[in-house]
Write a structure and sequence with these properties.
- The protein is of the alpha/beta class.
- It is about 35% helix and about 15% strand.
- The chain contains 27 helices and 22 strands.
- The strands form 6 sheets. It has a 6-stranded parallel beta sheet with strand order 12-9-13-14-16-15, with helices on both faces.
- Helix 20 links the parallel strand 19 and strand 20.
- Helix 2 runs parallel beside helix 3.
- It is elongated, with a radius of gyration of 31 Å.
- This is Probable phosphoketolase.
Length: about 800
């Protein structure tokens, strides 16, 4: 069978571009490579189908076959080919190598390669490298109590969750950053290549520093089909595909065919040509001082989908069609013809030549396999926690803002944090294991102090007007949240640290990516052989309450809701109310392991409420009473609790408390600030949650609680609905009412403003409705006056714009 118009018997040169002559494989090497590949194919088929009789020592029977057939065959033979040939070059060149498997549902192939090389048995000693272990390897695949069908955290050597497509190439580049000796192969499936995140991540080569970074070798696997449709890149003309890949900055080498011997030869030449080119690029940059952006090699591998599987089933073509995508023979238990086809398929790999009578791989099968940590399943780069070092974070007092009394001064919290991050960047200059990523917003988010320690990574052209671009920089900016996320995930998973800074509204673009990372962390926590990695830290700023200038499209605080729906053991959300609490939270998050931390903090001038000492204590509690802001005295219980979470809600609550002190001085008001939003959950549901005793002591069990929250108000109700005092809880937050307006009008429109909060107190404290009717009316009058004022003057009311805390 031929692929498209190319003849398998006469594959084109490996590069098709006048590559210097490279020696073909000798007969012995060809034989042993093919033996490894056939063994991997046999193991892949066995995992999909068999639960007994792994070596076919008896005639195959229906009870040897799993009752539910799950898995993906179509991509597996191509992935097995890549695994085999990576083994060859790793062993021959003594490479540090890692592979990211983009077609993640090809799990049978990666598991097969790991089992053959022995890394799987070292990780899971009960899956021995013999007939008994092979039987367990087969049965556990996509079986209750077993392992997933895709490349997953349980898979030795993997850093990439294969359950969702589109992220492999950005993960690969993240892994290569600051690992100068590492070669990261990345298999990109042709279906995956149709996703937006993958399409953008080809541009990562404009950010790869050939001096300080490793190399990425993309392998675009064109097997022609997705689940039920042709793949776009497999159906466009070769010259158009080449133009696309060259436009991305790559030099493609082509491996095309369906004859195994010819494809092995072509793949070996392509691998050698690519690695020779990578070595030349790095040598030119590191030794000769070359500064031109290189054109990195890549491989286009075009082999049939379901290669070596059944050609036809029930009179319909299967191999090299979409029908081979998952399980080519679906009715094996009930259809004798299918059972006979399965046995013939398995025996076509000649297992008796590959495994001895005890099921151990023959020497020919293992001839290409590297040793020790060079094996793909054993590389420490895929278990990054083993390589992780503590991050040097300076003492917070060096950057803390002085606070003699609450609310007397103002600072931009993220600008203060930027000074801290600059020092971290400077102190990691030699070890290069910290990166800041973000979509073109580092300076916009007031973090530009980091440029004093490192510029922005950039390998493309530069002009005189450009600022802070640096071929060796460690600040990563590209206007693709997907790519930023992928880079950082790959960087963290291979043993480094980082922070992702993003506008709050647009971090939703990576909702699905963070889902996958959280799932990864949840699984790895249960795998004792996986060492903890540095947490994925988000700094969300330019947030909903200060997007008054950009308008409704930029106003969305819902990422927190999304995160708190996920595995509670792995997610943390913090809303520091000022600069010093932001420093304390950031210090904690940057030191943490195996979490996804979300920090929401403003970049606009904000009142300084707490000294560094008080900020540390408050953040350690996660929620606490600000007695200086309230009017509680002696042993008297509060009449009302004003609670807040977030910088703008905190300012509005403190201002409301000041109004109540002035207009209703006899009222006992408690002010509670929440930094760690998970504190509102019961302790049984989140490690940071409060017991009922703690919660009732803080918020009371029967007094009105007016809660001003940064985001959507129903989240607070969801977190606290089991609490005794929930019937008395009234939450104000963002109600999806936005426009281009003034900062204070944003809170007024959403009923989060100080005057509305005072009205809420009057409405909910028993006896106040009549006694304080005049005060309520004054509050309403200010809101009406505000409405008219901003439309005439375009600015907020003077008593709001010039407000200060006078407590």
């Amino acid at each position: 069978m031929s692929v498209d118009t190319h003849q398998a018997s006469d594959p084109p040169p490996a590069s098709g571009r006048g590559t210097p002559h490279l020696a073909a494989l000798g007969d012995d090497e060809l034989r042993t490579l093919d033996a490894h590949w056939r063994a991997a194919n046999y193991l892949a088929v066995g995992q999909i189908y068999l639960m007994a009789n792994p070596l076919l020592t008896e005639e195959l029977r229906p009870d040897h076959v799993k009752p539910r057939l799950l898995g993906h065959w179509g991509t597996s033979p191509g992935l097995n080919l890549v695994y085999t040939h990576l083994n060859r070059v790793i062993r021959a060149r003594d490479l540090d190598a890692l592979c990211v498997w983009g077609p993640g549902h090809g799990g049978p192939a990666v598991l097969a390669g790991s089992w053959l090389e022995g890394s799987y048995t070292e990780t899971y000693p009960d899956i021995t490298r013999d007939a008994a272990g092979m039987g367990r390897l087969f049965k556990q695949f996509s079986f209750p109590g077993g392992v997933p069908s895709h490349v997953a955290p349980e898979t030795p050597g993997s850093i990439h969750e294969g359950g969702e497509l589109g992220y492999s190439l950005s993960h690969a580049y993240g892994a290569a950053l600051d690992h100068p000796d590492l070669v990261v192969a990345c298999v990109v499936g042709d279906g995956e290549a149709e996703t937006g995140p993958l399409a953008t991540s080809w541009h990562s080569n404009k950010f790869l520093d050939p001096v300080h970074d490793g190399a990425v070798l993309p392998i675009l696997h064109l097997n022609g089909y997705k689940i039920a449709n042709p793949a776009v890149l497999a159906r466009i003309p070769d010259d158009e595909l080449d133009a696309l890949l060259r436009g991305y900055g790559h030099d493609p080498l082509h491996v095309i065919g369906d004859d195994p011997a010819a494809v092995h030869q072509s793949m070996a030449r392509a691998m050698d040509a690519a690695l020779d080119r990578i070595a030349a690029i790095q040598r030119a940059a590191r030794e000769d001082g070359a500064t031109e952006r290189p054109r990195w090699p890549m491989i286009v591998l075009r082999t049939p989908k379901g290669w070596t599987g059944p050609a036809e089933v029930d009179g319909l073509p299967v191999e090299n069609t979409w029908r081979s995508h998952q399980v080519p023979l679906p009715g094996v238990r009930d259809n004798p013809d299918h059972l006979r086809q399965l046995e013939a398929w398995l025996r076509s790999y000649r297992p008796q030549e590959l495994f001895d009578e005890d099921g151990r791989p023959h020497a020919d099968v293992l001839a290409c396999v590297p040793a020790g940590a060079r094996r793909l399943g054993s590389t420490p780069y895929a278990n990054g926690g083993l390589m992780l070092r503590e991050l040097p974070i300076p003492p917070l007092e060096r950057h803390a803002v002085p606070v003699d009394k609450p609310g007397a001064t103002m600072h931009e919290p993220t600008r203060v944090l930027g000074d801290l991050l600059r020092d971290v960047m400077r102190d990691t200059a030699d070890r290069r294991d910290f990166r800041l990523v973000g979509p073109d917003e580092t300076a916009s988010n007031r973090l530009q102090a980091v440029y004093e320690a490192s510029g922005k990574a950039w390998q493309a052209g530069t002009y005189e007007v450009d600022e802070d671009l640096d071929r060796h920089g460690r600040v990563m900016e590209i206007l693709s949240e997907h790519t930023c996320q992928g880079w950082l995930e790959g960087y963290l998973l291979t043993g480094r640290h980082g922070l992702f800074s993003c506008y709050e509204a647009f971090v939703h673009i990576v909702d699905s990516m963070v889902n996958q990372h959280i799932k990864w962390l949840r699984v790895t926590r249960r795998l004792p052989w996986r060492a903890p990695i540095a947490s994925l830290n988000y700094l969300l700023t330019s947030h909903v309450w200060r997007q008054d200038h950009n308008g409704f499209s930029h106003q969305d605080p819902g990422f927190v809701d999304h995160i708190l729906n996920k595995s509670q053991e792995a997610v943390r959300v913090y809303l520091p109310p000022d600069a010093n609490t932001l420093l304390s939270v950031a210090d904690h998050c940057l030191r943490s392991r195996d979490y996804v931390n979300v920090i929401v903090a403003g970049k606009q001038p904000c009142f300084d409420w707490l000294s560094m000492e008080d900020a540390r204590a408050h953040c350690a509690r996660g929620a606490g009473i600000w007695d200086w802001a309230g009017t509680e005295t002696g042993d008297r219980e509060p009449d009302v609790v004003l609670a807040c979470a977030g910088d703008v809600p905190t300012q509005e609550v403190v201002a409301a408390a000041q109004l109540l002190r002035r207009h209703l001085p006899e009222l006992a008001v408690r002010v509670v600030n929440v930094v760690d939003i998970a504190r509102l959950l019961p302790r049984a549901e989140h490690p940071h949650g409060m017991s009922d005793f703690e919660y009732d002591g803080l918020f009371t069990a029967d007094k009105p609680v007016i809660f001003a929250y940064h985001g959507y108000p129903w989240l607070i109700h969801r977190l606290a609905y089991r609490r005794t005092g929930h019937p008395h809880l009234h939450v104000r937050g963002y109600k999806e009412i936005g426009t281009t307006t003034t900062p204070f009008d944003m809170v007024v429109r959403n009923d989060l403003d100080r005057y509305r909060l005072v009205m809420d107190v009057i409405d909910r404290v028993p006896g106040l409705a009549v006694r304080a009717a005049a005060v309520r009316q004054r509050m309403e009058d200010v809101r009406l006056r505000h409405h008219d004022w901003i439309r005439e003057h375009g600015t907020d009311l003077p008593e709001v714009a010039d407000w200060t805390w006078d407590g």
